[in-house]
Amino acid sequence: MKILAFAASNSSTSINQRLARHVARRIPGVEVETLDLNDYEMPIFSEQRERRSGQPAEARDFYRKLGEADALVISFAEHNGTYTAAWKNLLDWTSRIDRRFFQQKPALYLGTSPGGGGAQSVLSQATASAPHFGAEVVASVSVPRFQDSYDGARDFVADPAIDRELAQAAALLAERMGLREIRRLAS
Ligand SMILES: Cc1cc2nc3c(=O)[nH]c(=O)nc-3n(C[C@H](O)[C@H](O)[C@H](O)COP(=O)(O)O)c2cc1C
Which CATH class, in words, describes the domain spanning 2-186? Predict the structure, then answer.
């Protein structure tokens, strides 16, 4: 069983990447593969480019990676209330291969920011549009004030309410993947 975990961000110090990896690793007995959006950088999508050159190899690789996973953990960074440009470009290119590019994978959607908003705006948009793109979101969790909520040195969620929410979300994903020991995960 393999979980593909990544941030919808191209920041080399992405807090969403750390969150996605942390939550995916809470599910025991699965392989966790992480993705870096910088490996999928492409020219900005345009219909003319697409007609001229077809689908870039990066979009095809990304689509294949999604298809090979059993489940997804995606954490959305928020830029000006919405997706980062890096994620939107990758989404646009990949949606032209297959509009339902998430290929009906079960997914955990997360979002975090340094401030109190917790990337809630982009997380709501991503969750609402997930069925359109073929993702089956089992839970979505916003983590406000990442630097206060998460202790990176100990890989530990310091806020007990958020920790519980993340545990329950991980348990739901594990259950959807047919994994056992779900009660222990959620407690
Ligand atoms: C151009 C830009 C716009 C931003 N807009 C928002 C925003 O609308 N809401 C928010 O909570 N944070 C916003 N931020 C702060 C990001 O949440 C912060 O940079 C965060 O670290 C991004 O996640 P990442 O580290 O995973 O890339 C913005 C940052 C940048 C650079």
Answer: alpha beta
